[in-house]
Design a protein that fits this description.
single chain, about 160 residues, alpha/beta, Rossmann fold, two-stranded parallel sheet, globular
């Protein structure tokens, strides 16, 4: 379709698997570092922000989460939920001037709470983008993701 596709991941395993599929369009680094160090080849029409893992309360003492926290620590990164939200906010702020007029942003592990506030990975980034012309167009508010759109024609 002639679209530019880029994938960025902090995890070596995920990066290696992505590189097998998209080769030179896969980058092993944080999303913030990528946006600081690289220029985007075009404006962004869609982005899926599912990085910097979220620690779900029900799983916080599971060995796989504790292992993941140690993996982050080996890279001098503290894996916690505040840092997850800050990473997504920083990436959203860096992406904002690079979005197409009509675009969408999908946040994984993000939800709207009972009081209308957002929580999860995109808990800080979603309100930021909402103040910049995006709308919550999530088809199902009971899921653990939030889809935002700007200037999209929806039926």
């Amino acid at each position: 379709m002639g679209l530019h596709f880029i994938t960025v991941d902090f995890s070596r395993d995920i990066y290696e698997r992505a590189r097998e599929i998209v080769d030179s369009r896969a980058f092993h680094m944080t999303g913030e570092d990528f946006l600081d160090l690289r220029s985007l080849p075009s404006l962004v029409s869609f982005t899926y922000l599912d990085n910097f893992d979220w620690i779900w309360e029900a799983h916080q003492n599971e060995q796989w989460i504790l292992d993941q926290i140690q993996d982050y620590a080996k890279k001098n990164v503290v894996m916690n939920n505040l840092n997850s939200q800050l990473a997504h906010l920083r990436q959203s702020m860096k992406l904002l001037p690079n979005f197409e007029d009509r675009c969408a942003v999908l946040f994984d592990d993000t939800w709207r709470r009972w009081d209308g506030c957002y929580d999860g990975k995109g808990g800080a980034a979603v309100p930021f983008l909402l103040t910049h012309g995006f709308k919550d167009i999530s088809p199902d508010m009971d899921k653990d993701y939030v889809l935002l759109g700007r200037n999209l024609m929806l039926s």
